């Protein structure tokens, strides 16, 4: 099951109107682009996929639409995070029934969770379906940090087979992987999000790149990932250099604002981000357009 969590996992936006109703036609078109590019998996209803802004019914509609496009050709992973454990369990069951192949779960909370509370939350959701589940470790958003001890306990729960890690503050990917791997099961996949560091994380031995930009620009993202998977550090860094303007914007404004602006420039029928998130200004959009041109120049080269 861990193989479902390896390679390039592309995370697209979820087009929706002001009332939070998913535009399944526009969403299906995004999924078709990812399928045609040949990404290893598609991760829907993640942070950029605005899962926390959508109702249970709309989340299910999104999964059904994606599954209808992919028809089993790509692994389809769906986010099922929710404040309440029973709601997350219901979302996991919905995802399985709607055609998802895997689940992604973050420890979403209002009251900060203890390590023990998080353990029981994940155990309940993992046990609710037959699907493999990836832990979404996103402390910047959730304000929850997994201890190594908690990760080890979770790794021995049936169906929990992977973790989506944030980039380490010191960028010591090799050191973090060397610390974690001996403590986890042999088939447990360790991947990273934070697009600007994932090529280096892959070079260091990471299993997966959980990518926002791949949800929008799958072809150049795949070039970067394949170079890193091949261990070609020189080619990886050459390709990554073209992405640096985008990475800088991600860090400055947050990836969700940047990709919404980028989608409108390309143009793709995405609409605006859910309120209260505001679109970027005209001057900021100009910077996004320039960053996209740098990546487009990369695509034009062999």
From TrEMBL:
<protein>
    <submittedName>
        <fullName>Dihydrodipicolinate synthase family protein</fullName>
    </submittedName>
</protein>
<dbReference type="GO" id="GO:0008840">
    <property type="term" value="F:4-hydroxy-tetrahydrodipicolinate synthase activity"/>
</dbReference>
<dbReference type="InterPro" id="IPR013785">
    <property type="entry name" value="Aldolase_TIM"/>
</dbReference>
<comment type="similarity">
    <text>Belongs to the DapA family.</text>
</comment>
<feature type="active site" description="Schiff-base intermediate with substrate">
    <location>
        <position position="164"/>
    </location>
</feature>
<feature type="binding site">
    <location>
        <position position="48"/>
    </location>
    <ligand>
        <name>pyruvate</name>
    </ligand>
</feature>
<dbReference type="Pfam" id="PF00701">
    <property type="entry name" value="DHDPS"/>
</dbReference>
<dbReference type="InterPro" id="IPR002220">
    <property type="entry name" value="DapA-like"/>
</dbReference>
<feature type="active site" description="Proton donor/acceptor">
    <location>
        <position position="136"/>
    </location>
</feature>
<keyword id="KW-0456">Lyase</keyword>
């Amino acid at each position: 099951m861990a193989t479902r969590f390896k390679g390039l996992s592309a995370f697209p936006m979820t087009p929706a109107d002001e009332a939070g109703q998913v535009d399944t036609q526009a969403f299906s078109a995004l999924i078709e682009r990812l399928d045609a590019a040949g990404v290893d998996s598609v991760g829907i209803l993640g942070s950029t996929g605005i899962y926390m802004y959508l109702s249970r019914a709309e989340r299910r509609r999104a999964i059904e639409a994606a599954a209808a496009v992919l028809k089993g050709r790509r692994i389809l992973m769906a986010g099922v995070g929710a404040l309440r454990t029973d709601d997350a369990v219901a979302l996991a069951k919905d995802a399985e029934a709607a055609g998802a192949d895997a689940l992604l779960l973050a420890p979403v909370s209002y009251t900060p969770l203890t390590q023990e509370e998080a353990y029981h939350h994940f155990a309940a959701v993992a046990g609710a379906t037959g699907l493999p589940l990836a832990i979404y470790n996103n402390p910047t958003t959730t304000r929850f940090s997994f201890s190594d001890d908690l990760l080890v306990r979770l790794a021995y729960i049936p169906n929990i087979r992977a973790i989506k890690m944030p980039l380490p503050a010191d960028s010591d990917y090799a050191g973090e992987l060397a610390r974690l791997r001996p403590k986890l099961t042999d088939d447990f996949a360790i991947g990273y999000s934070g697009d600007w560091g994932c090529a280096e994380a892959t070079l260091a031995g990471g299993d997966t790149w959980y990518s926002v930009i791949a949800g929008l620009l799958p072809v150049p993202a795949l070039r970067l990932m394949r170079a890193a998977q091949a261990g070609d550090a020189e080619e990886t860094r050459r390709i990554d250099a073209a992405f640096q303007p985008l990475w800088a914007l991600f860090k400055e404004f947050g990836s969700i604002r940047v990709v919404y602006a980028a989608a409108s420039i390309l143009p793709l029928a995405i609409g605006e981000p859910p309120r209260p998130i505001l679109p970027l200004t005209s001057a900021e959009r100009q910077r996004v357009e320039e960053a996209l041109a740098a990546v487009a120049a990369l695509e034009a080269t062999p």
